[in-house]
Design a protein that fits this description.
alpha+beta, about 120 residues
Length: about 120
């Protein structure tokens, strides 16, 4: 997957915003809560995953615990180019759903997400 494809996949999800934080990181959020981070060129990506996906991805070596975010079940893919577009799109959709589910019912409704 390319950086542009990653950006497009994130922005295609409902109610997504993107901020540049921590220098040059692109931080994708839903309802003000981050679900994915795209680092500067060559610095990989981090996404929120379920507990089961976290264990599977880390144990298989496909990803590693994301620095500073591992306790919240985030993983880091060091090289976006080696992750298939379909796989990463699936991880992004899942991350968006996981984070949106933690928003209040009123917040989800106001963002056009299912309450």
């Amino acid at each position: 997957m390319t950086r542009d494809e990653f950006d497009g996949a994130c922005r295609a999800l409902t109610a997504v915003t993107m901020d540049v934080q921590w220098g040059e990181d692109h931080v994708y959020k839903v309802g003000g809560r981050m679900f994915a981070v795209l680092g500067p060129d060559g610095h990989g990506v981090s996404v929120k995953v379920s507990d089961i996906a976290y264990e599977a991805l880390v144990e298989s070596g496909a990803a590693r615990p994301a620095p500073y975010l591992a306790r919240a079940r985030w993983v880091r893919f060091d090289d976006l180019a080696v992750v298939s577009r379909d796989d990463m799109t699936g991880w992004l959709v899942n991350a968006h759903v996981l984070v949106a589910a933690k928003l209040t019912r009123a917040a989800r409704r106001s963002l056009g997400l299912s309450a």
